[in-house]
Structure formats: structure tokens, C-alpha cells
Amino acid sequence: MSRTIPLRSLHLRRSVLSVPAINLRALEKSHSLDCDAVIFDLEDSVSPEKKGQARENLRGFFAGPPLEGKERIIRINSLSSEFGAADLDLVKALLPDAVLLPKVDEPGDVTDISDLLADAEAPEALRIWAMIETPRGVLNVGAIAGAGRTPGARLDCLVVGLNDLRKETGVLPQPGRSYLVPWLMQVVLAVRAYGLDAIDSVFNDFKDAEGFDAECGQGRAMGFAGKMLIHPSQIEPANRHFGPSAEEIAEAEAVISAFADPDARGLNVINANGRMIERLHLVQAEALVHKARLISARKPA
Ligand SMILES: CC(C)(COP(=O)(O)OP(=O)(O)OC[C@H]1O[C@@H](n2cnc3c(N)ncnc32)[C@H](O)[C@@H]1OP(=O)(O)O)[C@@H](O)C(=O)NCCC(=O)NCCSC(=O)C[C@H](O)C(=O)O
Ligand SMILES: [Mg+2]
User: Fold this and answer.
1) Which residues constitute the domain of residue 279?
2) Which portions of the chain are predicted below pLDDT 50?
3) What's the pLDDT tens digit per position in 188-232?
4) Tally of domains within the chain
5) At residue 173, what are phi and psi to the nearest 5 degrees?
6) Reported pTM
7) Which residues bind Mg(2+) (predicted)?
């Protein structure tokens, strides 16, 4: 029997823009950008001496007009660092859609923060995202994603961080990412096994539009839901690559109408103009059309 994708739980996460919480201009600008999600970063884009100011900036930002139509994620510093506890207190006060944990090594990193949120009686709507960007994180990614299945775990999404992973492993940045692909696919496999989303890593060279295009195409083909971004110029290409194309939508609609035909009633496999389609393709087609509808329903920023 084919597994159904729960359509209600599909999120648009094509373009996930990182905004340094220390940068007031970038924070303000996030209102007018057409990305699906914003990560407000308290970690690596904020120097140690400015962490306090960055938290204050986020307090001010969240007290202002709401960020319409975008998921709001706060990336905190590691809970084992001197900044983690104050960052988490801020998350509990601001209640974004999710908290993003950096450098997750093992399932306990996720369950520990789930427990802290439960102890604080944070609403279930506050989810957890986890960065996979350390060698141990990649080795344990199946178990980390599986931790999302434990009751109350809140885990929704894994985000790959190739800057840290390259730093820790010595893999060089190269077009095509051939030495990294096995690890990237481990992440995709892990999230799909447990019903989560995976977001591909940032592409640092934001002036290289051609290289970014190629990497988005690769990320989509690998099964990522979207890409973490560092610059507004990356939003449009990410939305284009990670959203369904007009051709894919037309194909999906054809699959749906083929199965809606009375002749297809009771059939699991049909011949659609010389191509076999199965009911599992119907499930995929419905998910794709649902995503296309979510995109059309989005108000432009
Ligand atoms: C990389 C940047 C420092 C470049 O900034 P800047 O020099 O200001 O670029 P531009 O002049 O081209 O900017 C044009 C306008 O766009 C606004 N802008 C730029 N970046 C952003 C942004 N991220 N969000 C919102 N708005 C942005 C500028 O303010 C300009 O606006 P205007 O004044 O109206 O013209 C900068 O892009 C930047 O800081 N990017 C984000 C860096 C970041 O978040 N880093 C952490 C995430 S990366 C990561 O997590 C790696 C991972 O952990 C791993 O291990 O791989
Ligand atoms: Mg990192």
C-alpha cells in the first residue's frame, strides 16, 4: 500500500534566508523579501561581544509589525556555550515558529532542548530545527532525525551547514560537491525516513549567479525542500528551483485526472499514453499540486 503524504503538514521552505540579528538594516529588509522563511541568526554571524545587542535587536523586531507569510526561526548558540542559555530564554519569550540548534551531534542534543521547552511549558507550535554540520552529526543523522519521533520532540527540519562540515573534514569547496554528495544524501534519506524536511546548505559566493543556479538544481534533484540563503539575490532562483515548474504541474494534473477517470476505478496501475503510472505517483502528484497552490496563494512580500 502506498503511504499518503499528509498535505496539511507540507510547508513551503524553498528559500530560507539567514539574517544576522546584529544587522538592523537586514532585519528591517526581511519584511519586504519574498523568501519562505527567515532564520534570525544569533550564532556565527554575530561576534561574541555583540551577542547581547543582537538579542536586543530581536526583541525590538518581534515587538514590531509581524513578519507576514514567512516562518520565523531563531538560530541560537550552542547550549554548551556561554551564550546558549540567554538565547534560549529569548526564544521562550519571543515564541518564533522554530528554534534552530547549531552543530547538532547526537539525538540527545534534540531531546535535551525538547525537555527544556516542555519544562518551560512552551507551546507545541514552537518547533525545533537542527543544523547538521559536524562529522558526528552526519554519522548520527538517522538517529537525530529519529529523535523527532519521540513524544514531544518537536523536531521539524534539518539544515545542512557545509561551511562547518568542510572546516571539520578538510573537504574542499568544489563545483558539483562530489565528495559531499554521499553525506548530503544521508541527510535527505534520514529526514524522509521520519517525515521531516531537509534544507540544503548556504552558497557563499552570492555574486556567482550561475554557480548558485547549478547548486539549487542539484539540491532539488537530491530531494532537498529548499536552500538556506545568505543574500536577497538568492531568493528568486531558490524559489524557482525548489518550486514546481509549469511542466511539472501540468504533468501532475494529468496524473490526477487519469486516476479520476471512471475507467481507472479499482486500478492501481494504469497506462497513460505509453507510460506506467501507479497510485504512488498520484500521491506525489497531489503533493506537488498542493505545493503549487500554496505558492500561488502566497501574497507577494
Ligand atoms: C554577505 C553579506 C555580509 C553581504 O552584505 P552586504 O555587503 O550588505 O551586501 P549587499 O550590499 O549586496 O546587500 C544589498 C542589500 O541587501 C541587504 N542584505 C544583504 N544581506 C541580507 C540578508 N542576509 N538579509 C536581509 N537583507 C540583506 C543589504 O542590507 C542591502 O540592503 P539595502 O541597504 O536596501 O541596499 C550579507 O549578505 C550577510 O550578512 N548575509 C548573511 C550572513 C549570515 O547570516 N551568515 C550566517 C549564516 S551562514 C551559515 O549558517 C553557515 C552554516 O552554519 C555553515 O556552517 O555552513
Ligand atoms: Mg555553521
Assistant:
1) 246-298
2) 1-4
3) 999 999 999 999 999 999 999 999 999 999 999 999 999 999 999
4) 2
5) -70, 125
6) 0.95
7) 133, 164
Q: What letter represents residue 232's amino acid?
A: P
pLDDT on residue 252: 95
77 lines ligand 1 (CB under 6 A): no
Same domain membership, residue 194 and residue 98 = yes
- Do residues 211 and 175 lie in contact, with contact meaning Cβ atoms separated by under 8 Å? yes
Residue 224 lies in a domain: yes
265 is known to lie in a ligand binding site: no
Q: Give the pairing of strands 269-272 and 275-278.
A: antiparallel
2 domain residue, yes or no = no
Nearest C-alpha neighbor of 133 from the set 141, 125, 145: 141
128 and 197 both lie in a single domain: yes
Q: Do 195 and 11 contact (CB within 8 A), yes or no?
A: no
SS3 297: helix
CA of residue 100 to ligand 2 center, whole Å: 11
Q: Residue 10 has what pLDDT?
A: 78
* Cβ of 20 less than 6 Å from ligand 1: yes
Is residue 1 in a domain? no
What is the C-alpha to C-alpha distance for residues 72 and 19, in angstroms, rounded to an integer?
11
Q: Is the CB of 163 within 6 Å of ligand 1?
A: yes
User: Is 162 close to ligand 1, i.e. is its CB under 6 Å away?
Assistant: yes
**Helical (H) or strand (E) element with 33:** none
Q: Are residues 177 and 59 in the same domain?
A: yes
pLDDT of residue 3: 45
- Determine the distance separating the centroid of ligand 2 and the alpha carbon of 230, expressed in angstroms: 12
